[in-house]
Hints:
Layout: E1 2-9, H1 27-40, E2 47-50, H2 54-67, E3 71-73, H3 89-98, H4 110-127, E4 132-137, H5 139-149, H6 155-161, E5 167-174, E6 177-184
Helix pairs in contact: 1-2, 4-5
Pfam family, one: His_Phos_1
Protein name: Histidine phosphatase family protein
Organism: Tissierella simiarum
Amino acid sequence: MMTKIYFVRHAEPDIKIKDDMTRPLTERGIIDSIKIKNYLENKSISRIYSSPFKRAVDTIKSFADSIGLEIRLVYDLRERNIGTWVDDFTNFAMRQWEDFGYKLEGGENLKEVQVRNINALYEILEKNRGENIVVGTHGTALSTIIKYFNPNFGYEDFERIRPIMPYIIRFEFDGAEFVSMKELKY
C-alpha cells in the first residue's frame, strides 16, 4: 500500500523578524502559498501535518482551509535550533554539513535535527498507511530528511535548494519502506 508524503518547505519568510517560531511570510510568501494551494488541491490529501513554526503553517493553511482539513502540529518537525542568530549563515551551514555533529551553544547539530524529523516521519507513516499526506517543513529540516534516504545529498545540494521557497518534494513509501523521492514543480 503506497503512501505519498508531499513535503512543502515554507514560502518566503520575513527575515527581519528574528524569532524563529513567529516569523511570518512576506507578501510574496503569501502569494506563493496560494500557488501551493492550487497545486495540492487535486492530490487527494487526507492528512496535513506541520512544524509549529508560523511560516510553515501559513504556507499550507490556505490549502488546508480549502479542503477542510486540520493542520496537525508536530513539534519534532520544527526547524533546527541554531542557538543564536547567525549573520554569516552560509559559513555556519557549510560547517554543519561538513560535520553533522557541529553546533553552537544552545543549538542543535544536523544529526539531532535529522533524528527527530525522521522519528516524526515514521510516526506519521505508521498512522497513515496508504494515504496522501502534506507536511509543512523547513529547508534544513527537510534537507536532513532527504540526506537520510539519499546519503549522497550534501552541502552543495542544500545550497541548491536553499533559495527555493516554497519547495515541494514527494516521497513515496510502501508501508514503512522508502521507495522514491521526486522534486515537484508547482
